[in-house]
What we know:
Layout: H1 7-22, H2 30-33, H3 70-76, H4 82-93, H5 98-106, H6 109-113, H7 119-127, H8 133-145, H9 159-165, H10 173-183, H11 188-196, H12 214-220, H13 236-243
One fe (ii) ion (FE2) binds near residues 107, 108, 119, 120 and 142.
Amino acid sequence: MIGTMTMLERAEAAERAMSEELDRVIVKSVLYTSGELDPTKPAVRPPDGGRLYLMGPDPRLPRMPEKPTILDFFKYRFAPANHLLQSARLAQKSGASEKIILACLLHDIAIAGFIRSDHGYWAAQLLEPYVDEEVSWAIRYHQALRFFADESVGYRYPDMYVKLFGPDYKPEPHIERAYREAREHKWYMSSRLICVNDLYSFDPNVHVRLEEFTDIVGRNFKQPKEGLGFDGSPTAHMWRTIIAPTKYL
Ligand SMILES: [Fe+2]
Ligand SMILES: [Fe+2]
């Protein structure tokens, strides 16, 4: 009976719940181990010893609030988000619109907290229900535009890519197609501006605070009142997976 519990009893109950949670079997999704383990072979599991499987938040991760906001995801799942914060700051300093600043702030959230491969597409999809169409469009296409120079705005192929992928790397055909599509689109420059502000060599001594963007996020991100993950949007399940990535089902 919660109501009749003393403080001590309540603390003990919370501790018990916590240790039960810690004692659950945690299984990683195939995606996490694919490549390290052969995904075509059955997964070999150590015996669970009769323990229960994790069906809630992973006790090794910071707890998210019950109704998480996009800023909570920055705090508890995307940190450190220096790259995103500095991109947004750069866009802001250049006098970009709030939409572009928001796009810069969010463009790599998939890398920061979800899945690296195809990150522009994942981020755009996650965000689509909550931002202006132009913002998610720009984020989707930055994935392709990053590989193609545009001298008209002083954007060169990144030296970093030569270092990371070698001098002979050629983007895949679907990326090249996406680039050509974007070129013809009315929002081309919005996506291009993400690339322009998307620098890798940041001053490590510059620390941009998330709070600097609270107002821009407040005005341009449609935060659901139920919390991200719980509003029944077409991408709510993706946010829930970021909250609890090791739930058994
Ligand atoms: Fe990116
Ligand atoms: Fe980036």
